[in-house]
Amino acid sequence: MLFYIKSTFIVKKNVRESAAQIAEQTADSLSYIINSGSDTVDFIYSNPDIQNAVVNINTSPREEQGRIFQYMNKMLNQLVSSNSFVKIVYVLKEESSGWGSGTFSPYIYNPSMYKLMRARAIDQEWIQEAKRKDGSLVWQGLQFNRLVGGGRNTDLILPVGRVLKNFKTMERIGYILVDLNGYAILNKIEKLKLGDTGKFFVVDSEGRIMIHSDLKLINKRVEHPELLKQVVGDDRAEFEYTENGVPYYGVKQLLSNGWMVVGTVPVHEITGELDKLQMFILYSFGLLALLAIGIGVLIVGRVTKPIKQLTLDMRKVQQGDITVRTQVKSDDEIGLLSRQFNKMLQEIEQLIRKVEEEQGQKLQAELRALMHRIHPHFLLNTLSMLWWSIKSNQNERVARGLSALIRLLEAHMGKSGSMIPLEEELDFLQKYITILELRYERTFILDLDVEQGLEKQVIPRMLLQPLVENAIFHGIIPKETDGRISIRVCISGDYTEFLVTDDGVGIGEEKLNLLADPEKAIADGKMGIGLRHIYDMLRFYYAGRSEWSVASNPGNGTTVRILLGKVSNFLDGKGEAG
Known about the structure:
Elements: H1 2-46, H2 48-56, H3 62-81, E1 86-93, E2 98-100, H4 111-122, H5 125-133, E3 138-139, E4 143-144, E5 156-166, E6 171-181, H6 182-191, E7 199-203, E8 209-211, H7 225-232, E9 238-243, E10 246-254, E11 260-266, H8 267-271, H9 273-318, H10 333-373, H11 376-391, H12 395-412, E12 419-421, H13 422-440, E13 444-450, E14 458-460, H14 465-476, E15 483-492, E16 495-502, H15 509-515, H16 518-523, H17 529-541, E17 546-552, E18 558-564
Parallel strand pairs: 13-15
Antiparallel strand pairs: 1-2, 1-6, 3-5, 4-5, 5-6, 7-8, 7-11, 9-10, 10-11, 12-14, 15-16, 16-18, 17-18
Helix pairs in contact: 1-9, 10-17, 11-12, 12-13, 14-17
């Protein structure tokens, strides 16, 4: 009984949704046909060549009139041939002339036919309505074409009209009338079925029937007051009403021109089959119950076996064997779970391998940093400078050099970990510059501008030293003058910004282009160990959370900009690699 109640609800819901969908599809189809008419009217209305033809036809020489006629005839025929739903197109002047597509071309060639046509057209209600609307579209209900032919055996059409204006003066110069194929429209309405006796029709905003299979009802208001209220006065897409004691179900959808397609059907025609379903369910219940017991026993066996197998494999993984793969091959949820379990283990293995590779790469970067901290070449030059100073009895210079070298070595010896506070890095740079000043016998000014609170921020060891070294060796020394290096550290959004600027000779465009693509420069062996060290530090410790860029103006120095986000979770709280 519960199944019957639920199925009844579902069937009713599906039927209603199906009816609403049919109405929506019908509305879309009719709107497409209607839009073809309105688009054709809009094209003629906005075409300046057609406006000129209408304005100049009576004042032009006979030969020019013939050319205008040929142009208008060709244009209107093209509009009809390009759209299968447009039956015929008229352009009527305010007085004495006009055109029509197809064989109907009254101007010049058949003036008597034009007079008959104009006599029929000028008194039509749509002409007066078009004048009142002064440029808006005027839609008429389904009807037979009364502008041509001698009786009722003419084409069934759906007309849409509009006044035609001269855009230069905005004066009314004529009328446009486009007749859509009424049989095509009626065919779409008649093909739709709701139940056995249900039907669709189209009404305007006032409830007048504009399209109906019974042409006698065209232009008449919906007779049933309750139905009229539901159609005109209610915005719901579905509704119900009672007619002659019979409950009806209805759907409606708005068309593109403001009309509405409406479908109605007696309720019993769309839900009556459910009564037959009730007895079928009751008789089937006993058989289905026995069948369910048998299927249940079978399912239990098929479900529990793969679950046991999957549980056993999970225990193996728990014990540390991530190479295990479950062999469950069913296509049900258990099979899906098994495949996801295997995929998870495969991804875990890949992640482990990736972590191992990154650890190896990070170790290589740290080894390069260690080699770069006290560069043998730099140490040799420093000791050589001290030796020559001793030979030259420059004892004060020797003392200063040895003192700076001792402080520099103390800054590195006994230090552990690849991450240090920013203040330690800056202290090292100051000691480093002292030795360079003694070596080159020049003055290098180091300007530091660190935003308050950033001194304790942890950064990779030797992150800034290569930039200072490059600034002196490649920027300032070639100038053969003293130099200045500025280091500015501040917060920029979610990042810490480092700006290292020198007043050296700058970098050429070719070198800048090379630094813009560090991966290619490394692959080609064109990046020095200092910049390679910085690139590796950013890539390993700040993956996806760092940027660097180099800007230079030859002769005016170079600026290197580094943005650092939050340090990678790969580091522990002591700044050590995890």
